[in-house]
Amino acid sequence: FTRWCANLQQTWHQTIPLSAFMQLQITQFDGNLLACQAPLAPNKNLHHTMFAGSIYSLLTLTGWGLIWLQLQALGLQGDIVLADADIRYLAPVQQDARAQVQLLDAVGDLTALTRGRHVRQLLTVRLTEGDRLLAEFHGRFVVKPATVAVSAG
Amino acid sequence: FTRWCANLQQTWHQTIPLSAFMQLQITQFDGNLLACQAPLAPNKNLHHTMFAGSIYSLLTLTGWGLIWLQLQALGLQGDIVLADADIRYLAPVQQDARAQVQLLDAVGDLTALTRGRHVRQLLTVRLTEGDRLLAEFHGRFVVKPATVAVSAG
């Protein structure tokens, strides 16, 4: 998992300049749960709390990242695109908060990619500080088939 | 309007680092319609189109900006916060696209601020390229009363 996460974070920082500016980091991945965070300084707003757009971007990329990691696990390739999303902001984010998403909460079967199908995957990503829910994001991602990767065996 | 827009853009760039990194710019304001844009380079994703989080941030700030401009017009002060939002991505954004929002489409009466009330304002912000709709954002903002500004006369 460590190598996958390093590759994912490198992919983000190299191809999405905003993710590098945000200093987005993966903090945990255990095969089911992916957690990311971003420091407040580059992501603040004029209230000195986290900017709504940064929170959204953090939760979007955490969701996108979980799908990317699933594709690695399945030995599949696909283009992951966000089709639509909604987000609720429940409390101001004052400091580094934790974005997390679980595979167990995901709806959608990526193995249909092997049959050349587009797959929709619904994810719920939550931003928390301790036990407190600060924001909740629901994203409907579409994964389009790409070349099937050769299994590393 | 020119001075208000200059102040708004300066407020964004000085207090929201992400907006400066995105190179967010106001391109039009006529008292009803506010249009903004951001160049593709700092906002791209790994498909070389605009990152979903950048699109969302552009539309959020365009909506936030219209409320800020309304407050200026009414001689009121208030803290503008996004409570929740949804967004649909309809087509990839290949180059500089135009985010626009109209006061005529807004739902919510800001003058209730003068009676010490919180005001909810619903805004629809659209991202277009020519006649083509690329993304649509609905945001529910809350404006909290602050000190009433002295009219400049």
What does it look like?
The structure is a homodimer of 153-residue chains. Chain A is an alpha+beta fold and 153 residues long. The longest helix of chain A has 23 residues, at 52-74. Chain A contains three helices and six strands. Chain A has one domain: Hotdog Thioesterase (Thiol Ester Dehydrase, Chain A, Roll), CATH 3.10.129. Chain A starts with a helix and ends in an 8-residue tail after the last strand. A six-stranded antiparallel β-sheet of chain A has the order 1-2-4-5-6-3. In chain A, strand 5 and strand 6 (132-145) form a beta hairpin. Strand 3 of chain A pairs antiparallel with strand 3 of chain B, so a sheet runs across the interface.
Mean pLDDT across all amino acids of chain A: 92
The coarse overall form of chain A would be globular
N- and C-termini, Cα separation of chain A? 16 Å
Rg of Cα set of chain A: 15 Å
CATH class of chain A: Alpha Beta
CATH architecture of chain A: Roll
- What low-confidence regions of chain A span 5 or more consecutive residues with pLDDT below 50? 148-153
CATH superfamily of chain A: Hotdog Thioesterase
Order of helices and strands of chain A: HHEEHEEEE
Structural class of the secondary structure composition of chain A? Answer: alpha+beta
Largest sheet of chain A: 6 strands, antiparallel
Whole-number total of structural domains of chain A: 1
Strand proportion of chain A, as a percent range, falls in 25-35%
Largest interface: A-B, 33 and 33 residues
What is the oligomeric state here? Answer: homodimer
Q: Helical element count of chain A?
A: 3
Strand order of the biggest β-sheet of chain A: 1-2-4-5-6-3
Task: List how many beta strands of chain A DSSP finds.
Answer: 6
Percentage of residues in helical conformation of chain A: 25-40%
- CATH fold-type name of chain A: Thiol Ester Dehydrase, Chain A
